[in-house]
Amino acid sequence: MVFSLAGQVALVTGASGALGRHFARVLHGAGARVVLAARRPEAVAALAGELGANAMTVALDVTQEASIAAALAAAQSGFGSPTILVNNAGIAATRPFLDHTEEDWDQVMAVDLRGAFRVAQAVARAMVAAGQGGAIVNVASILGARVIPGVAGYSAAKAGLIQLTRQMAVELARHRIRVNALAPGYIATEINADFFASDAGQALVKRIPQRRLGQVQDLTGPLLLLASEAGAHMTGSVLTVDGGHSINSL
């Protein structure tokens, strides 16, 4: 029962992506009422229909403060103040460093770091006001600790998100709010299927000690650990799920 989320309200940003959809299903399956947040709420309408009465959709652009405030107000009106936040919205710009533009940099930072900060701060303030504590899971990446060519802004943003997670954990602990980061490695999705079917993609997979890509199901247990009472004494942690990739020097 320590993994049960019965009575909890979970807000998932970036809910229209492969990871966001999976996170929503996992939280719902554990008993939470789930708020599906996406820039285009119609993109998660089918998922909301699948999950039924314990799911609702809200429009959320994490780069706009007014959008964050409106989405949080809608969630509170529909289900009550969130007790769980999965800060999942993110984008990447793939370009060599010498060709990386300031526009690339600004767009990635606006979503992956500043957007995550804004949503986390708004939800944390609501948690404090409600006096009920909660759990915040920032979705980082192994690229916040290691690098590959072509994603300078993304790597920098995820490194910043990991450090922000630690900062939040220290400051919010007195409010009974736990803050941890989930750092996936390479997870198979419809977006990266063509790349990982290529020679370059297969070469990358061979550098993963488990010799396979992660599946969204591999994130189920780690997410539930960080979101539920099973992880009650965890805050400021970075939970890596990558098949050993980040510790492999080859």
UniProtKB/TrEMBL annotation:
InterPro entries: KR_dom (IPR057326), NAD(P)-bd_dom_sf (IPR036291), Sc_DH/Rdtase_CS (IPR020904), SDR_fam (IPR002347). Coiled coil: none annotated. Pfam families: adh_short_C2. Residues 8-219 form the Ketoreductase domain. Belongs to the short-chain dehydrogenases/reductases (SDR) family. This is SDR family oxidoreductase. It comes from Falsiroseomonas frigidaquae.
